[in-house]
Amino acid sequence: MLQELPLDPVAHFRLRAEETVSLSGKVALVTGSTSGIGLGIARALAAAGANVVLNGFGDQTQIDELVAEFRSRFKVTAGYSAADMSKPIEIAWMVAQVARELGGVDILVNNAGIQHVAPVEEFPVEKWDAVIAINLSAAFHAIHAALPHMKARKWGRIINIASTHGLVASVQKAAYVAAKHGILGLTKVVALETATTGITCNAICPGWVLTPLVQKQIDALAVRERLSPDAARLKLLGEKQPSLEFATPGEIGATALFLCSQAAAQIRGIALPVDGGWTAQ
Description:
By secondary structure, this protein is an alpha/beta fold. The chain has helices at residues 9-18, 36-47, 60-74, 88-102, 125-153, 174-193, 212-224, 229-238, 249-259; strands spanning 27-30, 51-55, 78-81, 107-110, 156-161, 199-206, 271-274. It has a 7-stranded parallel sheet, sandwiched between helices. The longest helix has 29 residues, at 125-153.
């Protein structure tokens, strides 16, 4: 027998769409979250009620101010770990500390990353090793440490921040492209291994996102080619991103929040581009 629809189905579905995601009582660990995309994700999760642990490098005074902001603005428990994502033992300690102090790890966002640009034959070996360690291996080590906690609670969300460069390549970015392609493979394997559980694993693939680091690239391009700020912005976007608009850290945060919702419970192992049409070309 078909279920009866409400008298006003349009109003019904509008109401469903406007329901907010609640992460009250959940614990989120976001790596590389003292600025940029990671900070945007951490704020989105905290706004939904999640207790959040930040991680990353930066001025300690500014980090302390960020933690205080999370506590006062979002009324959640917030903390910080200075774990170095290039060191597996520190990653394991970080996850153990979060679980011990906050009761578990429900949401893991692997966002920490670095970049180096050079042709393959000129690429410094130590830079290759560093990019692979932080952009790829760190995600494995964090998942390895966090999964038992999620399984114990029968619920979890693992979100790996990949890139459009996990789907397509660009010249002079051998280590970054290799690492981000690897992240997508890792995402699929973890998704399959947790497919019958309440744990999901997915990847977000941002294109150009307007972060402080990208703003520096725009400013440098403007100076180097004697362009206005707007012209430099359009030149940078025009090379890759058809929308000619940057995504924002807040938009990436909203995407991560959706993947944490019940609506995304059967979204598993995907690479979700947020790239203004970059990978549609």
